[in-house]
Amino acid sequence: MSQPFRNNTFYRSSIWPDLTITNTDEHVLVRTVDPMTVFSNALWQGGLTHASHFVNWKVPLDYRCADPVELMRTQISAWGYPVGRTVGLQTAAKLTHTSIQEEAGDKYRLICCVTAGTGNASRSGKARTTFPAYACGTINTFVLIDASMTTSAMINAIITATEAKAAALQDLGVTDEDGEIATGTTTDAVVLASSQNKRYGDPHQFAGAATTIGNAIGRLVYQAVHEAVATQEEG
Predict the structure, then answer these.
(1) pTM to 2 decimal places
(2) CA 200 to the chain's CA centroid
């Protein structure tokens, strides 16, 4: 089990000491010393950006807001985090059940942090009731990598992480409202951040399941999603 917030509020990576993760009960903060290159579908600062602070804010199950983006900006500012260097997600999942996995390997150090609830599990590729937009993420996956990566490798890494999430849900037997195996939930978010550290030399060109870095991403995301989902009903 790799859920440090069951008994503690602070976690420092053993392989990447400059990276810390804190649970304030209201949100989880992943923090790095230097800004990282980030791709994400985050509510705040989504898309391509640079960030050193990564927030996963717990909101109520019945959360509703006319302008969630502005509310997120206001809240990040109130916490004292740099608004322009913070990526922000929202979740209704238990922060105490955050799963953290880490590994060092072939020109990389890798941290994966996941919160997960599956109350709105869904299966991609089928017709279903749809809505114009969502505000909150339910399976929120943060993958932070100390490595040098091409832009295409970072996008490849997001694909690998998403496939690993779907595999974990499949093995857990999580189903959608029609009883079919789920591939995710209706409100998932993923944050992929790379340090672009030049000390590693040539960048990773790919991050698929057969590459050293991609295989690690897949395994760690699978383990984190599996643990976070499997324990979500525990106290």
Answers:
(1) 0.94
(2) 24
Tokens of 181: 């195996």
Query: Cα separation of 156 and 121, whole Å?
Result: 24
Q: Decide the pairing of beta strands 184-185 and 121-122.
A: antiparallel
Asked whether 21 and 36 are in contact (CB, 8 A), the reply is: no
Apex 22 CA angle, 60 and 196, nearest 5: 110
Which residues constitute the domain of residue 108?
Answer: 4-230
Check which CATH number belongs to the domain holding 184 and give it: 3.60.70
* Pair 174, 188: CB distance under 8 Å: no
DSSP state letter for 44: B
CB 24 within 8 A of CB 57: no
* 235 within domain boundaries: no
Interstrand relation of 86-91 and 99-105 (parallel, antiparallel or unpaired): unpaired
Interatomic CA distance for residues 18 and 34, integer angstroms: 9
State the Rg of the chain over Cα. Answer: 17
Report mean pLDDT in 10-residue bins for the chain, 235 residues. Answer: 93 97 97 98 96 92 74 95 97 94 97 91 76 63 98 98 98 93 93 97 97 98 98 83
Of 96, 98, 100, 87, nearest to 15 (Cα)? 100
